[in-house]
Design brief:
The protein folds into two domains: about 130 residues, Aspartate Aminotransferase, domain 1; about 240 residues, Aspartate Aminotransferase, domain 2. Helices cover about 40% and strands about 15% of the residues. It is α/β, with parallel strands linked by helices. It is globular, with a radius of gyration of 22 Å. The chain has a seven-stranded mixed beta sheet with strand order 2-10-9-8-7-3-4, with helices on both faces. A hairpin with a 5-residue loop joins β5 and β6. α4 crosses α8. It contains twelve helices and 15 strands. Bound molecules: pyridoxal-5'-phosphate. The site of pyridoxal-5'-phosphate (PLP) has 13 residues, from α4.
């Protein structure tokens, strides 16, 4: 029997949930923003209860044990040796992206990223007075989204001081191969471009036989010029607690990053640190059970979406996000269309890809089945309507 019940029904309405309150007064099931509808691991909840029971919430230091735990975790999971002092705690990964944009280069420089991508990647450069340059991911012969390294090579210039990478990739769910990351790191090294590698989804590898590979671990010569961003937030469903970190091996780069944060970026809060430590030390069994559950949800989504008229999606190797190509369905506004059918999805345009939608399948399987059925019925009805209106015109 499964020790952890991901099918349990917990009502999130009325809890100030960003995901659920978007549709507060409407009958729309939310499969959009990337948090999960599952309670965090019991070990996290026990640790939080104990911390709250202490009753004093004064200023806090990062727990020394957490640094050690992170170092051990990186080595055990990813064969990546890091030193405790390379870790810089952050109250959010988006904060890390924005700090990276300000810390590297100067206003007027260019920041590069691949499209589609998690929307804050597209916003952060402009907010820091940098220009944004986008290079599109392409589909290879096997139908996987891959980096277009030739286009990247052509686009690289001395003005490009920073590349924002998302690995594993949100929204496509891609786990990059070692060869891709090695080639990317080498191109950036030669061009003098720092990489900020957002690896927030690193623990959510669904594909059997695939492992996460930190970008900073692939090319020792480049390691000093990489800012890695990670967090327990997606993995253990604690994003509302704001506990994340950067790992920066290069002393100069780390200093610039920390100077940029000074006086602006607050410390991680006590409960965030408490949850992070409990998750990383006592959350592994729960995580393995979660991955099994997510794999089955992924399989369901792929089977259903790929048989819906006009929709298709590529295989999700990591994350709990499905990237759906709706361009064949003849919908003017796909997000609004599915909202009116009762399903709230993320708009592809925000990721730099109009005509696509992102579906978050980290929810109870019954909810997912209901949503997929609503989507299929809406598409079928729409097709019938289109067929009968084209008949009446002829
Ligand atoms: C790639 C990526 N980076 C960062 C974040 C958000 O991180 P945070 O909530 O810690 O700012 C998300 C959330 O969906 C994400 O997918």
């Amino acid at each position: 029997m499964n020790q952890f019940d991901f099918d349990a029904s917990i009502d999130r309405r009325g809890t100030d949930s960003l995901k659920w309150d978007k549709y507060k007064d409407r009958r729309i099931l939310p499969l959009w923003v990337a948090d999960m509808d599952f309670p965090s691991p019991p070990a996290v909840m026990r640790a939080l209860h104990a911390r709250v029971d202490h009753g004093i919430f004064g200023y806090t230091l990062p727990p020394a044990q957490l640094r050690k735990v992170i170092c051990r975790r990186m080595e055990r999971k990813y064969h990546w040796k890091i030193a405790p002092e390379w870790i810089v705690f952050l109250p959010g990964l988006v904060t890390g992206l924005n700090v990276a944009c300000r810390a590297v280069g100067a206003p007027g420089d260019t920041v590069m990223t691949f499209l589609p991508v998690y929307p804050p990647f597209l916003k952060a450069p402009g907010l820091s007075g940098r220009r944004l340059m986008e290079v599109a991911l392409i589909k290879n012969r096997e139908g996987n989204w891959v980096m277009d390294l030739d286009a990247l090579k052509k686009a690289l210039s001395p003005a490009i001081k920073l590349l924002l990478l998302c690995s594993p990739h949100n929204p496509t769910g891609r786990v990059y191969h070692r060869s891709e990351l090695e080639a990317l790191a080498e191109l950036c090294r030669k061009n003098g471009t720092v990489i900020c590698s957002d690896e927030i989804h690193c623990d959510l590898i669904l594909e059997h036989g695939r492992n996460h590979l930190p970008t900073a671990a692939v090319n020792p010569q480049m390691a000093e010029h990489i800012i890695t961003l990670m967090a327990p937030s997606k993995t253990y469903n604690i994003p509302g607690l704001g506990a994340s970190f950067a790992v920066i091996a290069g002393a100069d780069l780390r200093k610039r990053f920390q100077q940029t944060m000074e006086g602006i970026v607050p410390s991680v809060n006590i409960l965030g640190f408490t949850a992070a430590l409990a998750a990383y030390t006592r959350g592994e069994k729960w995580l393995q059970a979660l991955i099994r559950y997510l794999r089955r949800n992924r399989d369901l989504v792929e089977t259903e979406i790929n048989t819906m008229p006009g929709l298709s999606m590529t295989h999700v190797e990591a994350t709990y996000l499905a990237w759906i190509d709706c361009r064949g369905a003849g919908l003017e506004n796909p997000a609004a269309f599915f909202e009116s059918a009762g399903v709230g999805l993320s708009e592809g345009r925000d990721f730099g890809a109009p005509g696509f939608l992102r579906l978050n399948f980290a929810c109870r399987r019954v909810t997912l089945k209901v949503c997929l059925e609503k989507m299929r019925q809406a598409l079928e009805k729409n097709n019938q309507r289109r067929r009968s209106s084209s008949k009446s015109k002829t």
